[in-house]
Amino acid sequence: MFYNFPINYEQPLFRPPSEADSLILQVTFGCTWNKCAFCEMYNMKQFQIKKEEDVLREIEAVAKIEPGVRKVFLADGNPMALSTKRLLTILEAINKAFPRVRRISTYALPRDIIAKSPEELIALKAAGLKMIYVGIESGDDEVLTLMNKGETYETTVTGLLKAKAAGIKLSVIILNGVGGLKYSHQHAANSARILNEIQPEFASVLVLSFPYGVERYQTKFGGEYVEMTIHDILKEMEVFISHTELEGTIFRSNHASNYLVLSGVLGKDKANFLELISFAINNPELAGLRHEWQRGL
Ligand code: SF4
User: Fold this and answer.
1) Nearest Cα residue to atom 6 of ligand 1
2) Pick from 78, 136, 154, 289: CA 20 to 30 A from residue 31's CA?
3) Sequence-ordered list of residues with C-beta below 8 angstroms from that of 124, at least 6 positions apart, any chain
4) CB burial class (10 A; 0-12, 13-18, 19+) of residue 253?
């Protein structure tokens, strides 16, 4: 974005696809949990809090060359683990440095939201924290336990509804295929059920991938993971979408991992999505599926 950019990023650095044009500000390093069976994001990083003076200095340095920043994303894994006092100091510095900023967002874990009082969440929202991204992954408690997410259906709903009550928008992620064939139906049905209860503003579905091989995930998943074909993945998607009862959630399955791209609003586009999925299941060669060579049809 900038020549001689004045932020000293500690790699690897992750952000949601929709934050591609945001200023990414690292306020923590890694993830406090770092134990989800499918996640390799911060394996090489120990969770650390970035020094406040370093964060504030970087905000001021960016403001000198780009004062017109409109969107800021706080990284890494879960900056909501920071104290509210620390977060408010950072949010206030962002607002002061970038007068045109209109959205500040971050990743969050339900437990870190639950740990904050309603008043603290309202204060964070008032200071500009408009949206949080939460990897729900699954609404099924058995699958959540096997993947070692450290959250349950109940904690996820409690945390996310608490943020919602403070006016913070929710963008949530479900992981297609994360329970394998054995748990596919309950994972899909309960993932729809949790979204129905939360009614997030945004939801996306990614497909589980295995950067270090399927065996590694099988071991971490208690040896219970049964690999899925593209057909199985699409069938799971069909069950998931058919169980959704959403009122106005912007929905996407357009990540690089997705075989079938869906984009629209649920429930308005539910019937259309189900038609597209059904066509892809019955006509995989004609459906324009992406990277189908990676799994058997
Ligand atoms: S909480 Fe998020 S970042 Fe941390 S290990 Fe799990 S998926 Fe990865």
Assistant:
1) 36
2) 154
3) 84, 87, 88, 91, 116, 166, 168
4) buried
